[in-house]
Amino acid sequence: MRILVVGGGTGGTIVANNLARRLATEIRAGKARITMLSASDQHMYQPGLLYVAFGQMMPDELYRDEASLLETSIKFHVDPVEQFELDQNRVRTKSGKTYDYDILVIATGSRTMSRKIPGLEEGAETFYTEKGAVKMFKNLRNFQGGKVAIVVGVPHKCPIAPVEATFALHDYFKGRGIRDKVEIKYHYPINRIHSIENVAIWAKPEFDRMGIKYETLFNVDEVDVENKVVKSMEGSEYKYDMLVSIPEHHGMEVIEKNELGQNGWIPTDRYQLTMEGHDNVYVVGDTTNLPVSKTGSAAHFEAEVIAENISSIVKIGTPVTDYDGKVYCFIEAGRDKATYAMFNYLNPPDLRAANKPMHWFKMSYNKMYWTSVRGLL
Amino acid sequence: MTNQAETSPSSATVNDNDLERIAELASLVAAAQDALTDDMVNRLAAAFSEGIMLLDRLTRNEGLMSLLQVLDTPEIQQLLIGLTDGLTQMSREFATTPPSKGGLVGMMRLASEPGTQEGLKSLSLLGKYMSESIRELHRRGTPLPEPAAWRDRQGAFTCRRC
Question: Between A63, A67, A366, which is nearest B153 by CB?
Fold first, then answer.
């Protein structure tokens, strides 16, 4: 059985490692083979970028060699896929090689689309890249007071990020003793302050307590970089001194080019996690079009289901389990408090009050992530 | 007949001493919470994370597990004692005897000593059985990665940040 994993992010790495553990005997006997194709030899802990943007982590803490995270039985090649030939069970890579498979796992992730909105890329700070997070922190350090606007595009990676960034801004300015000189205004595209209703219910009184202003139904239309004004499709505008953007995301370009799914999101069976119309193609993490958060946590729980099912297909010829939509998100509520949201397809999250031990749990997870992708936690 | 002095089940479960202990425990937790910093939590978590990964690698390393099993047998423990004795004697002899003068005559004299012959015999036996075992492992299917995959892996280890 030839298993090919395309993408070396959280989802792809957990699927590959989990499978290598489950299929160790079959791999040794030559009955199964796992190959991973990735666009990079590095693996980044992406949630750490928010901490980089606030000076709480250094960029080099976010990286490990992908090969060092993989089980030694996995064949790893840095050679991104350019063509998916699903009818022939084959992919073609940038180097010109072809890889045949019996089972394919697509874990290519997502990308920011700031350039879709005029002025947003040039005018706004964003922490979704290493370069952007470092730049944002340097600008925050130099900020002496004025109006800070947070704007949000949907869908985006990590749904909690806008709220977390807003709390972090409040605590950062408070810590520097300039909170009274800063007006923070949060803008959200739908008619409440967060897409997950219970998160909105929890965050609203927190915003009120912290003196954070908010405006809903604000879909960014354009940014006037010269005059520092952000305008919405709904007709309102806000003059800012610093603009922080959580940009809209799409799936990767290779998915769009190969016409596997609109905006790069692949239509995926919500329980089996197979690509619609292709039972031997699994989709994991951000790449799916599922109605769950685009987070490492969702990718993790999906990856475990996929690995268990592929392993059982190899061993007994049939999948054995289903994905229930489980997501577990830590929510940093400032620099020293956190809470969490756990939910699935059927049950919405029930948020508890933020506290310090939860913040430490999150800080600890930042370090233990590497055990997670190795398939231990 | 019920003894009035007997305590009810609920009061037996929680009494003043228990509550006092819980309060003490809570104050201990609060003290630890006040003493800890984000940096300390980071360091502890990093150590735990690296430790658990190392443990995972060690416990799933077939070669190491096989070595540990063999080391557990009395026969190999005697061999290890013999090896450490040998190392001690060797070190003493180096310290107390003059350096070799070299030359063929010296070589012949050394080769004719029974101890040298026993030593060479031990090494040749080790080589013989080790090569037989390695051949057998390859015949059954090697657990090592294929050379091509290993080459790629070596390349990927080059860290652009290191």
Answer: A67
